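re the bet — no i am not wrong, look at it urself. input seq straight from the record:
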Amino acid sequence: QVQLVESGGGLVQTGDSLTLACVASGRTFTDYVLGWFRQAPGKEREFVAAINWNGASSYYADSVKGRFTISRDNAKNTVYLQMNNLKPEDSAVYYCAIEATVRRSMTVYDPAFYDGWGQGTQVTVAS
């Protein structure tokens, strides 16, 4: 069973930067898409970014495009999310996720594409 552990969240001010990391164990993620989602209180979990198996393709929500960068280090079983120019609307619990072992028909933007989730790390951006 895969286990994902996020870290790097915290309290920052508008315009600051943070880098989140997610380390996987129990399953080598070399061959799998990795994603980041976030969820604010009272709102649905939403897609943030994803990256394919070798890092050649990445995907971003329009709300973070140009500000966030996703990357991965397969040797370390780690995926990162570099967040720049943070805004209050970025405040949420951020979750990393790994693609399901059996490929599913939905896209990387859909939470159902993934079957492993971290516990989340809180990001709070003060005005």
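see?? The chain has a mean pLDDT of 94. told u. also DSSP finds no helices and eleven strands in the chain. so pay up
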